[in-house]
Design brief:
4-stranded mixed sheet, disordered C terminus, alpha/beta, about 30% helix
Length: about 425
């Protein structure tokens, strides 16, 4: 039985880094990931005046009471869509001038889904280049609260929901977000734990998240938070274990129900999956996941399941490539708007390697086999594609090379070492991922 740990959860870390400076008093954040995405939020919040002090690797002391002023230069969000979208909500609510930008990949990702509702709230935002994408400019708001907003998104998005909640919190106005499929709920959990007036109303056909600051004058409670491990990062090691017949325990990992769709799919495939709840960190459940190897059958991911496992689909796609039978992924068009077009690149790479894969507008149809695979994988600089195909390349009999393996630095800087420990290189035949 192999045991491992993975970096802290990116989604929780981003939100904690934004909320802690708004609290009253000192917060301590442990387990902050060192990957590029989360560090983008650290740099962005510092540009807004946040006081972060390192207390050792992955540990930050954060002084509350942020008095934000307009940053002197554009805030570079690098590759992080979470940073850009959540900071958009924060800047809109604070009413300070500023500019958000990012690298070439982030400039291709849609911002209109968050800019449009923020503009509807009265935030003065304008595009500086192509409409709908970064860079964007916030002209600041001289006085007054933002307008209340009732938002029903076409696609459930935790980033958009979080941005609007941040705008309502700091802009002093009510926000209601009504989703047909519940997106990950880290913002609601953290805000509620810190004392913000957040309510969640779940019905059969929708989830309403409301924040109403009217009459609420209490400060946010500071955080003392150990960020749980990121299940999305663990997914790649779990798939590697299943494909090589190993039993694996991932320790100290987040078990938020809005994030555990991967485990449900693996159970449906016949894998032995056991979770043990061990604690809670600012309302975020965490514990261990034990996965036992088994003969697996194909899976089907229906649209309603996608919000709970969107980031894990590349890992599941390479798993499907080695499972006899046809696996189906539907309702995942949102993957076309990540660091790369993950649907398109996953399909093209599988086809290039010799896997029978059909691409649909919103998904994939993958017919798995035990046929040896060979070829060059194009990652487009996408960390999740590098990890997914890096796992496939490690299997015996493969002759697969992965371009830009350094892309894993975005979320899981130690991934290749963890993969080495789980699946020793001596067991693989053929080319390894280019390092």
């Amino acid at each position: 039985m192999t045991r491992c740990r993975v970096p802290g959860d990116k989604s929780i870390a981003h939100r904690a880094l934004i909320l802690a400076p708004l609290a009253s008093g000192r917060s301590i954040l442990r387990g902050i990931p060192t990957g590029r995405d989360v560090q983008s939020t650290v740099h962005a919040m510092r540009a807004l005046g946040a006081d972060f002090r390192s207390q050792g690797e992955g540990v930050l002391a954060v002084e509350g009471g942020l008095e934000a002023t307009g940053p002197s230069a554009p805030i570079d969000c690098d590759k992080s869509g979470t940073t850009a979208r959540l900071l958009a909500g924060l800047l809109a609510g604070l009413g300070v001038p500023g500019e958000l930008d990012g690298d070439e990949s982030l400039r291709r990702r849609p911002m209109d889904r968050v800019v449009y509702p923020l503009q509807a709230m009265g935030a003065p935002i304008r595009y500086l280049g192509e409409r709908g994408t970064l860079p964007i400019r916030f002209d600041g708001r001289a006085s007054g609260a933002l307008r209340p907003l009732r938002h029903v998104p076409r696609i459930s998005s935790a980033q958009v929901k979080s941005a609007l909640l941040l705008a309502g919190l700091t802009g002093g106005t009510r926000v209601d977000v009504i989703e047909s499929q519940q997106s990950r709920d880290h913002s609601e959990r953290l805000l509620s734990w810190m004392g913000a007036p957040v309510e969640v109303d779940t019905k059969e056909d929708r989830v309403r998240v409301s924040l109403d600051p009217e009459g609420w004058h209490r400060p946010l409670r500071p955080l003392d938070l150990d960020v749980p491990g990121d299940l999305s990062s663990a997914a790649f090691l779990i798939v590697a274990a299943l494909l090589t017949g190993r039993d694996l325990v991932v320790e100290g990992v987040g078990l938020n129900p809005t994030r555990t769709g991967l485990l449900d799919i693996l159970r449906s495939m016949g894998a032995g999956v056991h979770t043990e709840l061990e604690g809670s960190a600012a309302s975020e459940p965490w514990g261990s996941v034990r996965v036992e190897a088994a003969d697996l059958r194909p899976f089907r991911i229906a649209p309603a399941m996608v919000p709970r496992l969107l980031d894990e689909i590349p890992a599941l796609a390479v798993l499907a490539a080695r499972i006899p039978g046809t696996s189906m992924i539907e309702g995942a068009a949102e993957l076309r708007h990540k660091e790369s077009d993950r649907l398109g690149l996953t399909a093209r790479n599988l086809d290039r390697l010799g896997v029978d894969c059909d691409e649909t507008p919103d998904g994939l149809r993958i017919r798995g086999s035990a046929t040896p695979l060979s070829g060059l994988v194009e990652t487009g600089g996408d960390h999740r594609l590098a990890m997914a195909f890096g796992v496939l390349a490690r299997l015996p009999g493969m002759e697969i090379a992965v371009q830009e393996p350094e892309a894993v630095e975005v979320s899981f800087p130690g991934f290749w070492d963890e993969l080495d420990a789980l699946v020793p290189r001596s067991e693989a035949i053929g080319r390894r991922p280019t390092r």
